[in-house]
Design brief:
heterodimer, A: about 250 residues, alpha/beta, Rossmann fold, 2 domains, six-stranded mixed beta sheet, six-stranded parallel beta sheet, 8 helices, globular, B: about 100 residues, alpha+beta, five-stranded antiparallel beta sheet, 2 helices, 5 strands, about 20% helix, about 30% strand
Chain lengths: ~250, ~100
């Protein structure tokens, strides 16, 4: 099968892969295709495959400099996912924001009256299940952002515990400062380490004065994007670094 | 090549040779991110882009050589380039573009 055919097949199966191309130095034009958790293919330097996992976790194309070669690494894979637990109004607004980004949205709630198509028409997937079951089904990975929205301890707590046990790159929880404090105490009592709690953005979202559901969703999605890029989320005018997320200099291996 | 994969596949299935140009590095400001790519078919069809339109015509010319020889090329565009006056980036940035024939 041709390389293009293989890349198309990877896309159809929803797999992730990195395509390495030597662009300068020994063996210009040679390629290596490394599929996540799977095979390696091509005539490029085989040692490049060692870098695939880290590149996939960062989810961004980048240039590597290795043994006098410059190598371009291109990421293939499905778009990131936003998994919302709590089929409240903000969940639908979050799905719309996710759609705008081309991301996949999944909404789950134990309450069948909440998790309906009428209420959440935009979700790519709707699940009626308690948190443990829903999280087991969705299996959040390093390309998944989790947002917990129920405002109800009996759902929020197990949902956050499940999120913390996953590799989700972002975990957000709505709720007032007072509720966050109370929740913090309860999670600590449930055995969660202090450092683990730092993974939770709560109250989630950037400080942009959001009020309506759509504004709140935008503020949360903006925070998710900033987390993914390792940025603080302030005004670009005040940003000390480059506007775009790519590294300015090639990363040396 | 991700964004243009379906067009590349279609052209290849139709028996055409295809050249793909990809932005592999950007310095300072740049119109399109790393990974943005432009595909050019043997018959001259285009899809995708590597800039806001500022360097595509030059890439197209370079692509003809790559199409014939099969030898890939690494091109640089930007204000430090000799061709800054004819083919440059108005945003003041620099981009490196790798041009290769799809095998």
């Amino acid at each position: 099968m041709s390389l293009v055919g293989k890349l198309v097949a990877i896309g159809e199966r929803g797999e992730r892969a990195v395509l390495f191309t030597v662009i300068e130095g020994d063996g210009v034009g040679r390629k290596l295709l490394a599929v996540e958790g799977g095979g390696v293919d091509g005539d490029g330097p085989p040692e490049l495959a060692e870098h695939a996992d880290e590149i996939l976790r960062r989810g961004r194309n980048r240039l590597l400099e290795l043994d006098g070669r410059r190598v371009f690494a291109e990421v293939y894979g499905p778009p990131p996912r936003i998994f919302v637990y709590g089929a409240v109004d903000t969940a639908e607004a979050l799905c719309r924001s996710a759609q705008l980004l081309g991301w996949t949205s999944i909404v789950a709630d134990a309450r069948a009256k909440f998790a309906t198509r009428e209420r959440i028409p935009t979700a790519d997937e709707l699940i009626v299940a308690w948190p443990q079951e829903a999280f087991a089904q969705v299996a959040p990975d390093h390309q998944t952002a989790v947002v917990v929205l129920t405002h109800d301890d009996k759902f929020d707590e197990p949902a956050l515990l499940a999120a913390l046990a996953s590799e989700a790159f972002y975990i957000g929880a709505l709720g007032s400062r007072r509720n966050q404090e109370r929740r913090r105490g309860r999670l600590l009592a449930a055995g969660v380490a202090e450092a683990q709690l730092e993974r939770i953005s709560g109250p989630c979202g950037l400080d942009i004065g959001a009020d309506s559901q759509a504004e709140t969703a935008l503020s949360i999605v903006a925070e998710i994007l900033a987390a993914r890029a390792g940025r603080g989320g302030g005004p670009l005018r005040q940003a000390p670094h480059r506007i775009h997320v790519e590294v300015e200099e090639p990363v040396r291996g | 090549m991700k964004e243009i994969l379906s067009d590349v596949e279609r052209w290849r299935e139709a028996g055409e040779q295809v050249v793909v140009a990809t932005v592999v590095a950007t310095r300072r400001s740049a119109p399109r991110p790393v990974g943005a790519s432009l595909a050019i078919s043997e018959s001259g069809a285009l899809c995708g882009s590597v800039s806001g339109g500022c360097v595509e015509s030059d890439v197209f010319v370079e692509a003809q050589t790559v199409l014939e020889t099969g030898e890939p090329k690494l091109l640089s565009y930007g204000i430090s380039d000799d061709e800054a006056w004819s083919v440059g980036l108005p945003c003041g940035g620099e981009i490196d573009v790798f041009v290769e024939r799809v095998e």
